Amino acid sequence: MKQSHLAKALLKETGLNPVDTARIALEALETLGEQRRGKGKGELMVLLRRVVREGVKAVQQAEHTVTLREAVWASVEARKGLRPTTCRDLRNYARRLLRVEEAGDMLLRTMRVADCKRILAAAFGSSASSYKKGRAVLSSVFSYGMRQEWCDANPVARIDVPRVVEKPIVPLTPAEVQRLKDTAEKPRHRAMRFSLRLMLYGGIRPTEVSRLRPEDIHWEEGQVIIRPTASKTGGGRAVPLRGMRGLSRSERTIPRNWQRRWRALRKAAGFRRGSWVPDVCRHTFATYHAVAHKDLPQLQMIMGHRDVSLLRTRYVSPVSQRVSRQFWGAANQ
Q: What averages of pLDDT result for each successive group of 10 residues across the chain (333 residues)?
């Protein structure tokens, strides 16, 4: 009786009674199976205490998590060493994810495939391309969360990657190229003459042009070095200097406020925002180079691609030899 009263006194604050605790102890011992056989009372008590300690740790670990909002921004912060433009895009996609109703307050560990599908559909459902990028960002958040032990799995890995059908990019016509060049001759836009020719006759991406430094331009060797840190893909390459006749030494520079100047030049040349295709100058160069030289491996090296398949499927459009000659004939005018 004394033990019964003592047991009740010890359990009073827990709300449990001796029968409850006996059932729990018995269940633990039955679960242990062979591990409990042949042990005396003292050994069983030691074993049960160990089960309790390890069980508490497992429960605490299982409940250790953060909200999706906290995980998203922690993941973004962990990648702050990336290029400024990449970080900006990452933050933009993060905000779009978190604007979905109730998404930010969801606990990372409790999120399932259906939750992730709903968030992605609400944030990026209108565009397969955006959905694909958004999926990659959300997947990276869960991967980061797993490393922090905020969750045990990445549910986004079970969501299919949408197939993105790229629209063909039509190269600029010689007349459209001339409009850009004529506009760049005007005093307000002359600072962009060099940049424009690098894009048209070197196939250098606009962002890569904006990152060029004076030491990257090798006039004596007739080439531009695209540093790995300036390249979109992280790989360096050498691009021949073409179409530079008539440029004074003072014009062979990359001006400040480059993006703003590039938008102003396009607008002044009659290209409105909705009609301008990003990287169309790069596609224009690739198309006319392929027709004129018929050397895709060389073009691949200049463009910085891993193989020629992307050139065939994405960059090279069918144009006539006559139009190609027009383009290259005007290069040094």
A: 66 70 75 75 78 68 83 94 83 95 93 96 90 95 94 94 78 93 94 95 93 91 88 82 85 92 95 84 90 86 80 74 88 75
Could you write out the DSSP letters of every residue in 310-328? HIIIII-----HHHHHHHH
Q: How far is CA 10 from CA 15, 19, 118, 271, in A?
A: 10, 13, 49, 82
| CATH code, domain with 81 | 1.10.150
> With b meaning 16 or more CB within 10 Å and e meaning fewer, what string describes 74-105?
ebbeeeeeeeeeeeeebeebbebbbebeebbe
Residue that finishes a domain, picked among 158, 191, 214: 158
Closest CA to 284 of 242, 247, 253, 333: 242
Scan for tokens 């040094």, then name that residue.
332
Do residues 209 and 198 make contact, with C-beta atoms less than 8 angstroms apart? yes
Give the helix ranges, DSSP H, for the chain: 2-11, 18-32, 41-63, 68-78, 84-98, 113-124, 128-147, 174-184, 193-202, 206-210, 258-268, 280-293, 296-303, 309-310, 321-329
Range of the domain at 118: 68-158
pTM: 0.63
Is residue 199 in a domain? yes
CA-angle at 122, arms to 120 and 124, nearest 5°? 60
Neighbouring residues of 184: CB distance < 8 A, sequence distance ≥ 6: 190, 192, 193, 196, 265
Strands ordered across the beta sheet of 237-240? 217-218, 223-226, 237-240
Distances (CA, A) of 36 to 21, 51, 53, 160, 222: 18, 12, 17, 47, 81
